[in-house]
Amino acid sequence: MSEAAGSHHSPLAQFEVHPFIPLRIGHFDVSFTNASLWLVIAFASIIVIMLAGARQQKLVPGRWQSFAEATAGFVGGIVEDTAGTEAMPYFPLIFSLFMFILACNMVGMLPYSFTVTSHIIVTFALAACVFCGCTLLAIFKHGPVKFLKFFVPHGLPLIMAPLMFPIEILSYLARPISLSLRLAINMMVGHTLMKVIAGFVFMLGLWGAFPVAFLVVLTGFEIGIALLQAYIFTILTCVYLNDALHLH
Amino acid sequence: MPDPELETLQNRIDAAQSKERAEQPKAAQPSPVDSGPALRLSVELFAGIVVGGVIGFYLDRWLGIAPWCMLVFIFLGAAAGFRNLIRAGNRDDLN
Q1: What 8-state DSSP symbol labels residue A60?
Q2: Distances in Å between the alpha carbon of A225 and those of A122, A142, A147, A187?
Q3: Pairing between strand A24-25 and A19-21?
Q4: Domain locations along chain A
Q5: In this structure, what DSSP letter does residue A19 have?
Q6: Which phi and psi (to 5°) does residue A112 adopt?
Q7: Whole-angstrom Cα distance, residue A97 to residue B56?
Q8: What are B's interface residues with A at a Cβ cutoff of 8 A?
Q9: A152 part of contact set with chain B, CB < 8 Å
Q10: Which one of A47, A65, A184, A206 has the fewest CB atoms closer than 10 angstroms to its CB?
């Protein structure tokens, strides 16, 4: 019993990628998987919600319009507060990033769904785009010499410079790793915990009512985490953008 | 579209907003980031060590001096992780 249960109802089975439509281009496996399906659903939900919000623009907004306006205002506030008004040209990018992560996290909260953002490769791709974009922006805006000076902190004794320079470079390179790991680990831990506790429900029989009650609380908590992680990813992107724009 | 009724409404909204803003100081509102600093900050430390370890591993492979680059870079990476940790802590205080 335990073997069959272990292979089919493992708390980690939810993260497995299954191909729906096997496809191959050259040496690359480009199958349409369950991950692709939920990426498409997340993407479609953003488009539907945002187009519904932008369809008829009234002075007194309806539900859809006020949702679209509130999220845009919220992200705009983050960008302006952390990176300044010079960063406002990058608002569309950051808003798309926020909406995409939020939609992936939220769609992952549906039963039987697949949480795309629990996979490190997805979040790392997002973080790598942010990292490469900010680095190129800093180099083109300030020139390579000034960019390298960014890695030598102000007021540093000259003897310490050979030690601090590699440390600063490593801490800069650690940014995309921590940005992607934070989101992926938070989503993975939450969903695994929910599945583990859901497993207790059947094991405990009648006493399973207690884990069910706990699951209700945990689901609300997970929705909070989904919102918070999208917010943290966005605010850290703005912090990195601020560093790239101002290089102090 | 210059609508006098809308204009007076806008003026009233502006007046009400500026009054509200004056009443409550901005620093009083807590940021939602406050709720989970522990996991957020531990990731910074981990990321530093991972980056140092990976760079050291491939430098070793390239230069063929087995454990030395990795040893040095793991410690440098840990230092970088602490540097990011301190930075993140300071940032939270500022927000």
Answers
A1: S
A2: 18, 37, 35, 8
A3: unpaired
A4: 12-246
A5: E
A6: 65, 15
A7: 32
A8: 6, 32-33, 35-36, 39-40, 43-44, 46-48, 50-52, 55, 73, 76-77, 79-81, 83-84, 87, 91
A9: no
A10: A206
Give this complex's ipTM. 0.72
Whether residues A185 and B77 touch (CB distance < 8 A) is answered with: no
DSSP string, A105-126: HHHTTSTT---GGGSHHHHHHH
Cβ of residue A120 closer than 8 Å to a chain B Cβ:
no
Residues A87, A80 contacting (CB under 8 angstroms): yes
For residue A143, what are its two tokens?
Answer: 């020139």
What is the separation, in whole angstroms, between the first and last Cα of chain B?
A: 40
B6 CB neighbours in chain A (<8 A) are: 59
Can you read off the two tokens belonging to residue A75? 């992200």
